[in-house]
Amino acid sequence: MTLNGILSIKRTHLSRTLPYNKKTEKAEIVPLDELLQIDKLPFKMTKLVMLEVAYEAQRSNSYREASEELYKKLSYQISISLVRDVTIFIGNLVFQKDLKKALETERNMVNSIPKVKEKIKGVLNIMLDGAALNTRIEDKNGSTWRENKLGMSFASTNVIKRGTKEKNGYTITKKEYTAYIGTAEDFGKFLYQIAINQGYGLYETINVLGDGAVWIWNLCNLLFPDAVQILDKYHLDENIYDFAKFVFKNNEEKYKSWAKMIIQYIMDDKLSKVYKEIDKINVKSIPKNVVNLRNYIKNNESRIDYKTYKEKGYYIGSGPIESGNKTVLQKRLKQAGMRWSVESAQPLLSLRAKVESGLWVEVKKLVMNL
Question: How many structural domains comprise the chain?
Answer without folding.
Answer: 1
